[in-house]
Amino acid sequence: MSFSAEVKEELSGRTDSAKHCQIAELAAILAFCGEVTAGCLVMSTENVTVADKYIELLGDIAGIAREDVDWCQDNKKGSAIYVTLNEEQSRGILMTVKWINVTRGNAFERCFANPVVIQKECCKKAFIKGAFLAAGSISDPKKFYHLEIVCDSEDDARQMTDIIAYFQLDAKYIARKKSFVVYLKEGNHIMDCLNIMGAYVSQMNLTNIMILKEMRNDVNRKVNCETANLNKTIEAAVKQIRDIEYIRDTVGLSYLKDSLREVAEVRLENPDMNLKDIGELLTPAVGKSGVNHRLRKISEIASELRGD
Length: 308
Fold this sequence. Notes:
With about 300 residues, the protein is an alpha+beta fold. It has 11 helices and 10 strands. It is rod-shaped, with a radius of gyration of 35 Å. The chain folds into 2 domains: about 5-200, Homing endonucleases (Endonuclease I-creI), CATH 3.10.28.10; about 225-305, no CATH class. The strands form 3 sheets. The protein has a 4-stranded antiparallel beta sheet with strand order 1-2-4-3. A 4-stranded antiparallel beta sheet has the order 7-8-10-9.
């Protein structure tokens, strides 16, 4: 099961106790999956989890039992599931989610997110939960961080973005083919969004993955840093040895004054040794900076001999 499916399964198993929150969640599902045909409200989805949650909410809010709704599945259209209410049931639900405009003679008027329905903060959370169930997805966090909710119109996407941004999350939206996608890409913001929706187990799983990835990245950074430093040390040692060998093969190491010749001889005999250990083999012992200074002088002499 994908991480996205795990989140939806967890969310579908959680039901808000407050009726106003249940209404907000139902309104979100209808905003993405609902339409009115010949006076009847039809909810269509390819996700059985969403269909089950929708019917559960119908029962909790309006007392509509599963056996009292028309449920059918069309395998010719990507296994689409249709849940249809009769006209009387439809009118009651439409009034509940504020899709009927009383000031206009009780005319049907689709509303993505009526301000009355999402007036309270807890209702905004429930709406986000319903929206994610109906049209959301999360990528595998082991690969990258990305949460998105696909909207039908730019106006819907703008409203969805505002609802998520209410919780200080960096939600944005972009056009994708004929849809508009609201998305979060920051791992911490996705983690907060899971908390807002009530997916606490999934939030904990994401937190563990993020911690593990950060530990691995930290180890990789340290390894890369150590490797870079080691490469620099090796390159420096190779150059030092080449300079010393050039002096030895052209004018002889006796060309160097005693302090430099001693360092040169120790370096040739110990090509893998670090500067600190080389300094301890000298008589008298010399610190790391002192050894480095002498090797630089040898390099300058080699350059002069080469005519650089």
